[in-house]
């Protein structure tokens, strides 16, 4: 049963990948306007435009164009970046670790913070903690990522001047990249001061990215826990003499984790999308920042590549959630 | 009555009024540059009544731009929420009612659509479509119709098992009539909630697109563009960014509270726990 479930999800992931390739292909072609004219530099002659058209496979029928596009994708060829004059996939993969580092940190912050805040708000009902957490839950969901980013810059960067607001590490600690992840790099170097600098640079953008998801996790956990408090198993535990804190944090919380995993999985794509703006605002050298630069240079091969890489990340994370689901949910796991 | 509904409703109504009356209320031409009085502070920071909320780096009156910007925000919010609903709901009705293969195919399309991050897709669309108010609406609809399709379809699946739908089928009503006359009226509460939540999202996306210069045309005052403009002078005149940002936060929180308040009021399952 669970194997069949996983296989069907895997099939869906492959299907989604193919679908995304169609969508990435179509974005450029289905909309009004000639992509060759969009790509060619301003003031190009008709010959230049024709050359662009040939170079980027924009001639022939749509079917033939898509076939060629798909085949080169399968070979890992995303085309050449117009702006950087390099292989587009290589440019993207060089920048990907920075984005993943930011996204994973945000994911950890959002999940951990959301669960903790949710549990505490139920533990200390009718306190400033609860009302504060509930307000944050409302604001967190509504206010977009980039506004959070700007607010954090104003408060921690401009007014308090506590934390750096751009880049990944202070210049004095800069060194050649080894793994692509700045955190892992400085850990390998065993340099506490550099580690401090890296974490200080990471915390604001990761928080800005995490806040909407944190709010969503908080609300799920909170409503689940509030519902659980009236359940029979909680009443039984209480009669057995288990303390409120143990009941809440050990028993009820465990049951609230399954919907949370689903939520985090569904929302991860949203979080990944947020990196486009957050990286731009915080000058974080990942693929989010690259995205807007690619648009400024009308670098369509690079844009297509970025859209694909983003989508692959989302699809893979959805798949990971499905796998986690099988292990977490006894109803799925034991149904074989 | 719940507090969320009141707060959200008041903000939304206020915003609507400002959007309608904005041009009449605005003390200055929102695009008129006055290079002798650039970055004037707002009243409470020692500014003058001439510019109650101060001026930006080109000497444009922030209050006037804010009022005109409200119009952009409201038009985008209302138009994109309604059109997204009009696109997504028929898909949801067909998928949920037909079930089986039709449902699978339609929902796979939605899954694939949603696996491209929304922000990225919106930016990509704007880059291809070009700038403009209605293009922003179009981009938001292309990105967000899936939200309606997915949520409404779930509700249709649940509704179609109920007796009144079976009865309608049993007396031989055609699928189209069952969908429009039996299912649709029962979906109205859910749709109202989704539309107001979508308005919150649309206001945010418009601001975001204008913030990166891929939204409305440069001459149209938009909160997102104002935030971007003010950001450059943050250390000398914080109000250039702060004022439009507060307006934006109020608007998205307002529409969001409206949606949640409506949900708590309209959904009987939530009424007891709220």
Query: Rg of chain B, please?
Result: 22 Å
Distance between the termini of chain B: 11 Å
**How many β strands of chain B by DSSP?**
0
What would you call the shape of chain B?
elongated
Distance between the termini of chain A: 5 Å
The succession of helices and strands of chain A, N to C, reads: HHHHHHHHHHHHHH
Whole-angstrom Rg of chain A: 24 Å
Structural class label of chain A: mainly alpha
Characterise the protein shown here.
- The complex is a heterodimer of chains A (336) and B (274).
- Chain A is mostly helical and 336 residues long.
- Chain A has 14 helices and no strands.
- In chain A, helix 6 (128-142) crosses helix 9, helix 8 (182-189) crosses helix 9 and helix 11 (244-281) runs parallel beside helix 12 (287-296).
- The radius of gyration of chain A is 24 Å and the shape is globular.
- In chain A, 40% of the residues are buried.
- By secondary structure, chain B is mostly helical.
- Chain B is built from ten helices and no strands.
- Chain B has helices spanning 3-25, 62-98, 100-114, 118-129, 133-159, 163-170, 175-211, 223-231, 239-266, 268-271.
- The radius of gyration of chain B is 22 Å and the shape is elongated.
- The model of chain B has no long low-confidence stretch (mean pLDDT 89).
- The interface between A and B is large, with 50 and 45 residues.
């Amino acid at each position: 049963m669970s194997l069949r479930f996983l296989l069907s999800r895997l099939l869906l992931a492959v299907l989604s990948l193919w679908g995304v390739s169609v969508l990435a292909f179509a974005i450029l072609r289905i909309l009004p306007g000639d992509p060759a004219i969009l790509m060619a530099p301003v003031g190009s002659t008709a010959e230049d435009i024709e050359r662009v058209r040939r170079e980027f496979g924009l001639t022939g029928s749509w079917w033939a164009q898509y076939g060629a596009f798909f085949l080169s994708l399968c070979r890992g060829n995303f085309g050449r970046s117009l702006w950087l004059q390099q292989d587009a996939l290589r440019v993207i993969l060089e920048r990907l670790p920075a984005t993943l580092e930011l996204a994973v940190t945000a994911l950890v912050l959002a999940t951990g913070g959301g669960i903790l805040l949710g549990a505490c708000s139920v533990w200390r009902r009718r306190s400033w903690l609860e009302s504060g957490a509930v307000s944050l839950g409302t604001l967190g969901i509504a206010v977009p990522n980039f506004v959070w980013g700007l607010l954090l810059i104003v408060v921690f960067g401009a007014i308090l001047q506590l934390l750096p607001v751009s880049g990944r590490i202070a210049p004095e600690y800069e060194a050649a990249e080894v793994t692509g992840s700045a955190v892992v790099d400085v850990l390998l170097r065993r340099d506490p001061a550099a580690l401090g600098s890296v974490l200080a640079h990471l915390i604001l953008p990761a928080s800005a990215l995490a806040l909407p998801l944190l709010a969503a996790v908080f609300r799920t956990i909170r409503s689940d826990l509030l519902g659980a408090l009236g359940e029979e198993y909680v009443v039984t535990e209480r009669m057995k003499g288990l303390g409120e804190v143990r009941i809440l944090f050990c028993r009820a919380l465990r049951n609230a984790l399954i919907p949370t995993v689903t939520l985090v999985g569904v929302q991860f794509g949203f979080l990944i999308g947020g990196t486009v703006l957050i990286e731009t605002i915080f000058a974080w050298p990942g693929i989010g920042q690259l995205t807007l630069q690619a648009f400024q240079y009308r670098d369509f091969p690079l844009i297509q590549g970025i859209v694909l890489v983003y989508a692959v990340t989302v699809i893979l994370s959805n798949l990971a959630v499905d796998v986690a689901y099988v292990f977490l949910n006894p109803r799925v796991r034991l149904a074989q | 009555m719940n507090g969320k509904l009141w707060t959200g409703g008041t903000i939304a109504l206020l915003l609507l009024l400002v959007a309608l009356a904005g041009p009449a209320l605005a003390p200055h031409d929102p695009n008129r540059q006055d290079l002798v009085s650039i970055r004037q502070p707002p009243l409470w920071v020692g500014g003058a009544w001439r510019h109650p909320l101060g001026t930006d780096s080109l000497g444009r009156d922030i209050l006037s731009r804010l009022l005109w910007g409200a119009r952009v925000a409201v038009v985008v919010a209302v138009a994109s929420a309604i059109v997204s609903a009009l696109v997504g709901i028929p898909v949801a009705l067909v998928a949920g009612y037909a079930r089986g293969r039709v449902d699978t195919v339609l929902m796979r399309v939605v899954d694939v659509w949603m696996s491209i991050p929304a922000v990225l897709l919106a930016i990509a669309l704007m880059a291809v479509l070009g700038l403009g108010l209605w293009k922003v609406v179009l981009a938001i609809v292309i990105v967000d119709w899936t939200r309606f399709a997915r949520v409404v379809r779930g509700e249709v699946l649940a509704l179609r098992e109920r007796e009144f739908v079976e009865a309608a089928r049993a007396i031989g009503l055609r699928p189209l009539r069952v969908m429009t006359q039996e299912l649709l009226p029962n979906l109205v509460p859910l749709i109202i909630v989704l539309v107001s939540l979508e308005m919150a999202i649309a206001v945010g996306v418009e601001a975001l697109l204008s913030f990166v210069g891929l939204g409305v045309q440069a001459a149209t005052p938009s909160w997102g563009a104002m935030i971007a403009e003010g950001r450059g002078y943050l250390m000398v005149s914080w109000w250039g960014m702060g004022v439009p940002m507060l307006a934006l936060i109020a608007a998205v929180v307002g529409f969001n509270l409206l949606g949640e308040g409506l949900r708590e009021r309209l959904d009987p399952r939530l009424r007891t726990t709220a």
